[in-house]
Fold these 3 entries.
Entry 1:
Amino acid sequence: MLTLNDTGLLKTRAYIDGQWVGADTGSEFAVFNPANGETLAQVADLGAEETRRAIEAADRAGVEWRKTTAKQRAGLLRRWFDLIMQHQEDLAQIMTAEQGKPLAEARGEVAYGASFVEWFAEEAKRVYGDTIPSPSNDKRLVTIRQPIGVVAAITPWNFPNAMITRKVAPALAAGCTAVVKPGEDTPLSALALAELAKRAGIPAGVFNVVTSNNAPVVGTELSTSPLVRKLSFTGSTRVGKLLMSQCAGTVKKVALELGGNAPFIVFDDADLDAAVAGAMASKYRNAGQTCVCANRFLVQEGVYEEFARRFAAAIAQLKVGDGVEEGVTTGPLINRQAQEKVSSLVQGALDEGATLVCGGAPDARGGNFYQPTLLTGVTQQMTISSEEIFGPVATLIPFRTEEEAIAMANDTPYGLAAYFYARDIGRVWRVSEGLEYGIVGINEGIISNEMAPFGGVKESGIGREGSRYGIDDFVEIKYLCMGGI
Ligand code: ADP
């Protein structure tokens, strides 16, 4: 069972208007530990009516919150950041228990999640407007940037902490209030964040968490309510498209961080050891369950065999197990459905002619574990090359020329992250500019941090999170035209 230093962080009710509340019907849903199937908690299972109340609470709280100074909001966010870091270990324990990632990664995610709170505490003070040269002498033109209003955020289970702070911190910094629906597999991390926000003194109604096992009902309320002015979603492209269409009725601003199909290109002139290290970090982190995980390894013919050999040797070092065990690098997949999907993609690739180098099956320890897997001789035409694998499975596809690699990399409706390894400076520029992706890692497998803009193009999404651009989505530009001067 979960043992925490501060048991007050384990919350099982939703957080609305500063209160911990159950469902009107008393209904609850179970949260499981994916490493052993144990039930961790029974969490309040809210519906449309309670969601509406959360939105109304956020709307009411916004009246005063938007009047606070940026410095006041920055101070509260900073306190929230400090509390998150003080409770890093407990938050990591909660995360590993409900999500499965190794503890070291969970601690890393808590620090990463907190970094957005720190960053936007600072950015709160830099929401500048403009003065614009006037077309005539009797007028002055000015812009101010104001909070957009109530923000709804729907977040996934793979980063149960950071996907919330990356949306809520800029929203609150800008003077917006927020209603969050966390992934149903991982509500405990979200509720622990709410408890710390409460302790930090963030006023009632400014940050609300609606837990539910009925995402379509809560999602419909959040995306159709006229009080919600912006919907920020991270999750699958299928649900993102649905929410975008539901938001059309009230013309909400939408920010979407959707699926990816990240290419990882290794050119003949790459530093192969660095490429293998980057490949391991990009592919096997979180057991392959991130939207920026390399999904296809495109490897130039001259280094194909050698890269495959070194990559396989590195994969052999991975240790599968419960994330709380010492030295574990690869936790379980989130649930049985995820494991079945990965199994069927691998089986499909083998049926279509791929070669199995290692892994290729659920892990012997049972449960939702899947063996770290390497397939070679994969082609762009195989189903596994067009689907987001979301598991610890790497596929190697050979290519001949730079042009061919860029064309293969771009041959997908997605455009979130891409990676490539090369040393030739001309090639570095040509490929960087040629890739139709929002994020490009060049000789680097880890690209996310709070200072850089995260987001995709094409069907991978709309908007950028983090960085100095991350607050833009939460403010409206108002133009003031002053005449009679
Ligand atoms: P994933 O494959 O990462 O689980 P989903 O898009 O299914 O991606 O889930 C991401 C988030 O979207 C979760 O919080 C989930 O509950 C929510 N979600 C799923 N279906 C819907 C829906 N129809 N409307 C609103 N939210 C949804």
Note: The radius of gyration is 23 Å.
Entry 2:
Amino acid sequence: MRIDIISVLPELMESPFKTSILKRAMDKGIAEVHFHQLRDFGLGKYRQIDDEPYGGGAGMVMMCEPLDNLISKLKSERNYDEIIYLTPDGETLNQKIANTLSIKDNLIFLCGHYKGIDQRIRELHITREISIGDYVLTGGELAACVLADSVIRLIPGVLNDEQSALTDSFQDDLLSPPIYTRPAEYKGLKVPEILLSGNFKKIEEWRSEQALKITQKKRPDLLH
Ligand code: 6GU
């Protein structure tokens, strides 16, 4: 998978892809992330990329021309499956969206800034708009990292133990059951007997029960 990320602050997104599991995905060639500085496509001596909104109002708007030039250049180089605009008014990211995107080959993530992008860029290029939740960030960069992480970790070969993506919270619209490691007793708190029993059928039953119970308690909205 290749992800091209368009931003005025690409440096904000470097470390997540240089660390741990995402780094390993990059090193193995399973995923590649390319950053594009929108400012390089800015207009004039000052490399302008934003301007005041027509009709007035607070905040600046990301202009058509730099975005159109950069996106058109990328599109001339390969076919993109989706061109995603990270914006608080997009559809809220969930595991289903991450699953869908994890089987794509080429994605563009456009990070919004200021008041957002000129509507015509949405009409010309954007195929999908995604938010990471109902709160406002200073820009789309951290959201782009969250989206990329949620997607890249699902690509086969990225996680060591393929099972671990399949047993994630949310993968079946259920939260994960409690987990324990050694010691069997800590500060008087005991690991549930069943987990020490070696009876894997019973253990799986217990985990399913617990997952259901915890979901009922913490996130009843997930159970349709
Ligand atoms: Cl994608 N962008 C911004 N600026 N804020 C957000 C968001 C995106 N998702 C949630 N809040």
Note: Residues 86-88, 112, 131-133, 135-137, 139-140, 143 surround 6-chloroguanine (CB under 6 Å).
Entry 3:
Amino acid sequence: MTAAGSKPQVHKKLSRDLSQLAEEMKRFSTFKQVMDYSQFFSENSKLRKHSAIRAMQKYLSIPGMISLGGGLPNTQTFPFESISVKLKTGETIELKDKVLDKALQYGSTPGDSQLVDWLRQLQEQVHNPPYQSYDICVGNGSQDLITKAMEALINPGDTILIESPTYVGILAFLRPLGAKFLEIPVDNQGIQPDALEEALLNWPDIATRPKVLYTVPTAGNPTGLSTIYERKKKVYEIAQKFNLIILEDDPYYYLQFKTPLTPSYFSLDCDGRVLRFDSVSKILSGGMRVGWVSGPPALVERIVLHGMATNLHPSGVSQLLVHTVLNKWGVNGFLEHTRSVAQFYEKRRDAFLHSLDTHLKGKAEWTVPEAGMFVWIKLPINDSFDLITNKAREAKILLVPGVEFFPNKRDTGYVRASYSYATEEEMDEACRRLAELL
Ligand code: PMP
């Protein structure tokens, strides 16, 4: 493994030199004004307490401790002898004995400590955050952690600042939570800081101020568009001015087609006001359900307290598999792997854009994503819902109507298309069929 702090070759190529940035940002810290994190907690979260049983877990590793306290099942009764993993490179890893036993047993709520240590190395090398006392908590994918963070920060009736259009999976959680949406529009350079500032400047004195901004800065789902670095800096300054917490939902970060990778909000965070969500879903496996959040301990603790009372912890076996492969690769190997995944999608993007050009030029408009797996297509109609949910399905093309991605629903001619899965021939045929429908 590469020691944290030493910047290996591949990292230099991938990321900008963030050390100067980190130093610069520290000078702008308004941390002293933000320190009281309890001002951000929802009423629900304030009621969450440490589980008495879960809290005992840290004592288990003390030498000589005899545990009659927990309800741990005895691993001798489990039927699994070993797990053999063969990577596509041909290497085989055998997981057995104590290592496997640990993964099969109940584990700690914030995640396996070895995996957490590895992820910290990654965060240091890739983001080098100026706010250094951050914690990391692993979850069942990043969605698990984002929704817990939202529950911890938002009361029913609160307004959340949310980029628009945005990830539909988060809207599905926020609507029943009773959140109101203040939409901040995105364009081809990402979220618009001027619109954010204006909304906050014009906020009526009598209404509870929004305190949370949710953003998907890389390859936004559905637009495929990313927020440029200059805008991130402006948004961060606005967050400082208006005392906001930024929820940086960034599962497509490593799917940027060009390097150096754009610095994250986390790498600008000198105050401790960013909760950054990462995921292995798009780069190792979606089914493994492993994601992680990095951010100020007081906020990460809210997520952990929620986990203690709900899913207890992410799957031990998934964490072991993920840690085993990451540890084998090291940070450099991981970054190299993500490059090959990004190149895979870039090639598909090119093929899809070519098919769009061939069949839909003059009939529709679309974004040219520089990362991720989505293209946001504007059809020459006021509302795409009927065409996409009925006629397109009859013609055997699946697309998502744009209305789903607007927090405050509205008629829109947009649709989301993904170039991640279908073959190049299928993508071409889908474009041909869509053109025919139009
Ligand atoms: N955020 C965004 C923007 C996503 O597109 C997704 C997956 N569709 C998620 C979060 C959830 O990812 P995970 O598999 O890590 O829960």
Note: The chain has three domains: 27-74+106-329, 75-105, 338-437.
